[in-house]
Every structure is written in C-alpha cells, then in structure tokens.
Amino acid sequence: MALPLVSVQMKKNKKPSLVLTLSAAGLLIGAGSVGYWLLAQRQISSSDLLVGANIIPGDALFAVSLTTDPQQWQKLRQFGTKETQTELDKNLVQLRDRFLTNNGYDFQKDIAPWVGDDVAIAILAPTTGNKPAPKPVTTNENAASDQQSMVMVLPVKNSEIAKTILAQPKILKQSKWSDRTYQGIAIKQSEGQAGQNFSAALLDGRFLVITDSPKATERAIDAYKNKTSLATTGGFAENFPKIANYQPFGQFYINVPTAAKIAAASPNRPLPAQVLAQLQNNQGLAGTITLESEGIRFKGVSWLNPNSQRVLTVENKAGKMQSRIPAETLMMLTGGNLQRLWRDYVLTSQGNPLSPIAPEQIRGGIKSLTDLDLEKDLLSWMKGEFSLSVIPATPKEGSPNDFRAGLLFMVQTSDDYGGQSLRKSAEASISKLDEVMKNQYQFQVQPGKVAGQPVVNWVSPYGTLTATHGWLDGDVAFLVVGAPITDKIVPKPNYTLAGTLPFQQTVPTEPNPTNGQFFLDVERTVKNFPLPTLIPNQETLLDATRTIGMTSAVSDNRSNRYDIFIELKKVTNTTTLPSPENSKSNSVR
C-alpha cells in the first residue's frame, strides 16, 4: 500500500494531493479499505481507539486509518471480480507511485522497517483565527490556511530508523528543505513555490506527523500537547471501543456537526438553520472493517452530542419476523417499532432538504390516497415489530400473473412484553381502507380463505388479484401487494428465511437484542429483477456481491450500534500489483 512520506505536491488552489487522498479514501472505504492500530496514549487507555487519535485535532472533519499489513491488502484483492480487482489495483498503484515511487521511496526498503501496523489520514476543516507560529509564514501560506488540510500520523516502531529518514530526506526536485521549531518540536519543512509546502515532525519518537501545510502541523502539535485531540472529543473515547476488533482492516470517523457546518456554508446546497440545529444533536459516526474468509464485516456506532438535550429510547424488540417468511425471500427489512421509527424520522427530517421524502409529503400523500390520517388511523396501532419483504412468485400453469414477486408488509399490534393488543383499532382502520378501495377506486373487496384462514382480497376492475390482507397468530396484520404469495406465509412455512444458510451466514447475530435487521440476496435479485441505478459503478459492485446483511440496536440512550456483513465473490487467480517500473512504463505509453 502507498504511504505519503515525502514532499506532497500541493497546488495552491486545486490541492491535488488532498483531492486524491479524499477520493482514494472514499473508494477504499466503499470497497472495505480502512485500517486500525492498537496503541497506548498518555493518561488515556486507548488501545481500542483510532491510531493517532491523541494527535489528530478534535475538530477534524474526517479520519481514516489504513493497515500496512501486505497480507491483509492481498486478502482484500481476492474479493470481488476481475473488474473490481482491476479498479482497486489502479487506485493502489496511483497512491503508491504518487506518494512513494515518484519521490524516490520504496515501501519495503524505506518505510516498512520502521512504520507501525497502521497509519491514519485526517482531513481538517478550515479554521480562522489560528494563533501565529513563532516563525512568520508567507502571505501565500496564510491564504491557503482557510482551506481544508491533511494530517497523516504514522506510528513508529523503530525510532532510530525514523529519525534517520527524517534527518536525511530525499532531495526534492522543485523545492528545498528547511528546519524550524514549534513548541519545542523540530519540524522539517519544504520551501518552494507557494502552496507546495510540506511539513514533517517526530513526536516523542513515537509518531511521525506529516501535513500539507505548516498550520496543520501546528494544529496537530497543539492537539497533542494541550490534549484537545480527537481522543478527548465528546463521546469519542466512550463509543469507539464498542466497535473495536482484533487486527481489523481499518477504521474511520466522521465529525457530524463539523460536516454539517461545512455543508451549511456550501453555496451549492446550503442547509437551513433549523436543519443545522438538528444535526448538532449528533456528534460522531465511526466504523471498523475486518476481512473475513467470505467477505467484509463492518461494525459501526453513532452517538449524540454530549450536550444535546435529545435522548434515545432503548427499545430493541425485533428479531421474529424472519421466522414468518419463506426461505426463498429475496429481501427483508425489519424494525422494532414503526410508530417510534416514524417519530424519529420526523424529528430528523422536518425541513431537511437531504431527506428522501419530507414527512409532510408522506402525510399528505396518504391522506389524499386513502382519506386516512397517518398518525391517528395507522401508526397509532403499529407499536410492535414490523417487516417489509420481497418474495418471488411461483409460476402456476393456466394462471396468468403480471407480477414476478409480491411485496409483503407485516406489523405486530402488541409488544413482546405482554402489552395490550391493538387489534380492534387496527381492524377499524383496515375496514376504512377497504371502503376507500371499494368506493373510490372501484376495487372488488372480497372475503376469502387461504389454507383455511380468512383473508380479504382486493381485486382491480380488470380482474387481477392486486392485494390481500389478513392476520397471523392473532396480532400480526399483513398486506400482500403484487404477486399472490399469501400461500407462502399462510400457514407458517416449515422452511423459513431464518433457517437458511445464506441468512445465517450473512445477517450478524450481534448486537443482540436488536431493533432491526436487513437481508438482501444480491445474486438472485440482480438475476431476476432490474434495479435502479443509485451509485456509480453499481453494476460492477453488485456483480461482485452475493448477499448483504445488517443488524442494528439502540446501544444506550446516547448511541446506536450497527453490524453489517457483505458476502463477496472471489477472484480465482489473483496477480501481484504492477511493479513501480512497469506502472511507470505503462503511464508513458
């Protein structure tokens, strides 16, 4: 893997190495490429924290650590397809050649002998009013100080070699090295054209800190000495250990309020003041990624700002719906309390332009289509576990079917702790809905039976069975839309999704208890149904994926936990990365 250890060529306006670092880090995170380091900080037991957390300034916008273990990187390259391997290799070669090879460094010879198990990259948000350094900086440097800057932290396992590398750096092509001191720390700094300065400092012989600006170096030193680093940011030290894992492939952290402020100041998509205020309730989002034999596992945690008045309700009551649906189910999403989920959505989405659909639009749409009040007529009795599933239809001879799958919605009208059943309220609302379908849309509302159990069918004016609703186990209401798959859930199937190997191998068993789970059989879904394009290179990524599973829970009244596993295909024959000489010759051609 490529580690930037020499003069990073930073253009004044475009900041190319920063842009490359951001885009490469984003791609690696999407592919499962972030890193982790176990270290001990002074006065803070931080063996489970992000590497460099005691150096990275607490207001950092984003931080990601990357493993330096070649075996882990080789393992990552075994996942996916030839197409995804080629894309990953291209980015790894670009990083290596730009930051090492092009500056005369070789990772195995110059870096591996002294660097630790992982390195960290942090993006610092623009700041104003930084106190001046002891040595005056140029006007051009001040002009660049209001831009985002980058800090790299490289743990040192052999300080003597690291000191030698820093004392005798490679000769620069377009600038020269100079020395200065800040707060008693020696800094090696390149001085060339404006906007092309690079700084490096060794802290206590344990960490080599590399930045793309003198100001960023000073901010890192201040954070380290004054204990204003990421490790002391509200909620960080308390929540990051929740996702710790032994020798993970990587970790990352996103500062939510800082990101919100930057988004609010963006001229392209400014955030309203009320949205910014809501986002200030959240503090951090962090994750750990590990490589396993069949795929990539993500362990995530999000937490509220310690000063926020908002608290979370610890209610984890999901986990039974997967035992009610058949084994052939393609997709399943479950949650513990639909009423509470809606309230949380309203709280975080009201007036938020980034929300998929505004709450008021959902309310208005349901009112205009069904004449029902969303909160009073529907959500008032939807306090138990719910699920949404896609179940493929079984073709039947002589029975034309316009749908290849059925959409199944189920919701429990009472909780799991002996709470009062709300079936009567539910029946009254469903009866209203029957009347709307009959009188407003001219559907035939016909009583029927499936396996001896009563159901109600909605048949369109054209005679196609459009929907079926009924009850399971006395307090679970269900609605099937599309293909007639009611016979797959009534009676309860003998072979359920919960008993299948793909589900058991993909959907994480922790956290437990859970307030929601997700399962998607990517292979079977892509083969049978066209999917809308949501992300770049979606087809390539889906082609490399077998299944996706997620389990979530409210950890406490200030934080949520998420576990995700992605089962991936494997490349039968992996090749080695092109050597620096070959990659150079290819670029010349």
- Shape descriptor reads elongated
| Structure summary, number of beta strands | 20
Strand content: 25-35%
Question: What is the CA–CA distance across the termini?
Answer: 24 Å
Instruction: State the helical fraction.
Output: 25-40%
Mean pLDDT reading: 81
Supply Rg: 28 Å
How many helices? The count is 18
The major β-sheet equals: 20 strands, antiparallel
Low-confidence stretches: 1-46, 129-145, 585-589
User: Which structural class do you get from the secondary structure elements?
Assistant: alpha+beta
Quaternary organisation of the protein chains: single chain
Q: What features would you describe in this structure?
A:
This protein has 18 helices and 20 strands. With 589 residues, it is α+β, with helices and mostly antiparallel strands. The chain starts with 15 loop residues before the first helix and ends with a helix.
List keywords for this structure.
single chain, 589 residues, alpha+beta, 20-stranded antiparallel beta sheet, disordered C terminus
Please outline the helices and strands.
Elements: H1 16-31, E1 60-67, H2 70-77, H3 82-99, H4 107-111, E2 118-124, H5 139-144, E3 149-155, H6 159-167, E4 176-182, E5 185-191, E6 199-203, E7 207-211, H7 214-226, H8 236-239, E8 250-255, H9 256-265, H10 273-279, E9 282-291, E10 295-304, E11 331-335, H11 338-349, H12 359-370, H13 374-378, E12 386-392, E13 405-412, H14 423-439, E14 444-450, E15 453-459, E16 465-472, E17 476-482, H15 501-506, E18 516-521, H16 522-528, H17 538-543, E19 545-556, E20 559-568, H18 580-588
Antiparallel strand pairs: 1-2, 1-8, 2-3, 3-7, 4-5, 5-6, 6-7, 8-9, 9-10, 10-20, 11-12, 11-18, 12-13, 13-17, 14-15, 15-16, 16-17, 18-19, 19-20
Helix pairs in contact: 1-3
